[in-house]
Amino acid sequence: MNLDRYRTMDPNLLYSLVNTRLRNDYASLEDLVRSLDLDRAALEQRLADAGFVYVAELNQFRAAG
């Protein structure tokens, strides 16, 4: 599944897909958004609204708090 519909995708599915892509294909969130031509701020906000934050040291989104 591709991430081009991240703005309307179920946030839990999005969380899972982004983390899978980060783990398997990209060294950082910056690499992922650049490669897929995504708006990083919008992607992070979409996931933040669902309670997830990006942790650069782990290269993954985690539940906030």
Question: What order do the helices and strands come in, and which of them pair?
Answer:
Layout: H1 11-25, H2 29-36, H3 40-49, E1 52-55, E2 60-63
Antiparallel strand pairs: 1-2
Question: What does this 3D model show about the protein?
Answer:
The protein is of the alpha+beta class. 51% of the residues lie in helices and 12% in strands. A two-stranded antiparallel sheet has the order 1-2. A hairpin with a 4-residue loop joins strand 1 (52-55) and strand 2 (60-63). The protein starts with 10 loop residues before the first helix and ends with a strand. The mean pLDDT is 95.
| Strand ordering within the main sheet | 1-2
Overall pLDDT score: 95
- Strands, count: 2
Helix content: 40-55%
Q: Between the first and last Cα atoms, what is the distance in angstroms?
A: 29 Å
> What series of H and E elements makes up the topology?
HHHEE
> What structural class do you assign from the helix and strand content?
alpha+beta
Low-confidence spans: pLDDT under 50, at least 5 residues?
Answer: none
Q: Give the C-alpha Rg.
A: 10 Å
Strand content: 5-15%
- Globally, the shape reads globular
Biggest β-sheet, characterized?
2 strands, antiparallel
- Helix tally equals 3
